[in-house]
Design brief:
By secondary structure, the protein is mostly helical. The protein has 9 helices and no strands. Helix 2 (16-38) crosses helix 7 (127-138) and helix 8 (143-150) packs across helix 9.
Length: 189
């Protein structure tokens, strides 16, 4: 398999197919990052296209010592932050993903309900922790890669992920406990 670095070098040398291969390798991950962060399919698609347009325009400035994936996510992250600034950091009206995408809600689906609870919990995290979770857990970047993307020390990213996971665990412990959905320890008689 051709490495990202080899594809980038081929693209820099004028191979358009190498660009297409990089796009195919990263398009779903970048789109997923935008969609999870912003909950808007059309905007996620637009920002995905803008990410690769910026990559194309900035290709001459690419430094070979940078990981290609990290560079792509740095571009995506900057576009995401620009979008937050454009919005004035006001969250959009909370709609379930199905409604936002214009899909009629179907019969109750426990997995869909759980996914909505997780999305709501992640959305409720402080922004720095939410970003760390999106990059490290959803996009599977290392702490070092996420640090390079955000410009934050990798140890700080690791701490943000730790705090976010702790907060999520506490929230779900409370949610599950208050709804009585999981049985407690058996009583001995």
């Amino acid at each position: 398999m051709v490495s990202d670095g080899e594809l980038m070098q081929a693209y820099l040398d004028g191979d358009a197919a190498a660009f297409e291969a990089l796009y195919r390798r990263y398009d779903r991950r970048v789109y997923g990052f935008f969609f999870r962060a912003l909950r808007d399919a059309a905007l996620a698609e637009d920002l995905l296209q803008r990410t690769f347009l910026k990559l194309h325009r900035a290709r001459a400035r690419y430094r070979r010592e940078l990981a290609v994936g990290g560079w792509i996510f740095r571009i995506a992250y900057n576009l995401y932050r620009d979008e937050l600034r454009r919005r004035g950091r006001h969250p959009e009206e909370e709609l379930p993903d199905d409604e936002r995408l214009g899909i009629a809600a179907h019969a109750a689906d426990p997995w869909r309900d759980r996914a909505r609870l997780v999305r709501a919990a992640v959305d409720g995290l402080p922004e720095s922790q939410r970003e760390a979770i999106l990059l490290c857990k959803y996009q599977e970047l290392t702490y070092e890669e996420a640090g390079a993307v955000t410009g934050v020390n990798p140890d700080a990213i690791k701490l943000r992920v730790f705090r976010a996971l702790r907060s999520l665990r506490e929230r779900f412990r409370h949610e599950v406990g208050s709804h009585g959905e999981t049985p407690g320890p058996r009583q001995r008689t």
